[in-house]
Amino acid sequence: MASFAADAFPADWEEGRFLGRVQRPGGPSPIIVEKGRVYDMAAVAPTVSALIEAGHFSAEGGRPIEGPDGLAILSPIDLQCVKAAGVTFATSTLERVIEERADGDPSAAAGLRSRLEGRIGGGLRTVVPGSDGAAMLKRALIEDGLWSQYLEVAIGPDAEIFTKSPVLSTVGWGAEIGIRSDSTWNNPEPEIVLLVASNGTPVGATLGNDVNLRDFEGRSALLLGKAKDNNASCSLGPLVRLFDDSFTMDDVRNAELELLVEGEDGFSLKGTSAMNQISRDPLDLVRQAMSEHQYPDGFVLFLGTLFAPIQDRDEPGRGFTHKVGDLVTIESPRLGRLVNRVTTSKAAAPWTEGIGALMRNLAERGLLARPAAR
């Protein structure tokens, strides 16, 4: 485990408890990392979802994995739905409005950015969504001709909650991450992701990359599905850090994420996302995700990002976009490092193992014979 821990785990990983999945000789297995040791939990519950729903958050009943360095690390979730909250930070709100008004054209973004920041930047950073102050700002922006559907979900009463990725389609630490081959303006979105049980209780957090295609979404919000949900376009990991006395929701609220993009062309981009600048509390976002919906196998929820890259990469005024081969590292002190290399969604490994394949595999291994231990 030493090499994997050195590459991906937080400094205090031997004190925390972590949940995830690895590829074993017979198939995928849930694991728990506790006191610096890795335990295969398949004999307790066949899936991460089943462990969570059984309330089994310790390594009790698991089988120690000796010499786990060579384990293939998978995305740390399985049957959970993958949801995301959008436009939850003032800076990213401005960038969404810019995308919309630039009609997906990065060359038109710089002038719009300067104008919008001067007119509404300060107001967005101080207003409470859904408040009387937000309603007053909305009326003023409508009068100025600056209102946008993105501002509606940024400061209105209802958060944007969308489905990011199908069940079992996410990729994990070390995997290639995909962008559409026909996208010319896109970026990573470094985020904290909550793991939530079916009863609405958040049980842990991990890192995520909610890859975004700015050209597609900028042309029309109705293209959100194409902008967000493509092969290998959602990464999570390395593992979920479970909440306990030493890691709580307040650690999420105060977390800082660092992003580094390293291109094969020598280009380098750094960015940060500070969760204390989020406009909506994480628990409110969980509540809104569940207000009219149920998730019997639980769900994960991307909380949004402060990061919105504007650094020019190739031509002045055209901003940042990915190139194939970019190495993307997302890091946070209590959650570790999520590392993925960029390719196209067409060139990424195809997603072939769905729910049916997982159930067949678990049945063949005799892991569906009894319910998870409680």
TrEMBL record:
Protein name, per record: Fumarylacetoacetate (FAA) hydrolase family protein
Highest rank taxon of the organism: Bacteria
Lineage start: Bacteria, Pseudomonadati, Pseudomonadota, Alphaproteobacteria, Hyphomicrobiales
Gene Ontology MF terms: hydrolase activity
Pfam families, per database record: FAA_hydrolase
Entry similarity comment: Belongs to the FAH family.
Fumarylacetoacetase-like C-terminal domain location: 187-342
SUPFAM superfamilies for this protein: FAH
The keyword Nucleus is assigned to this record: no
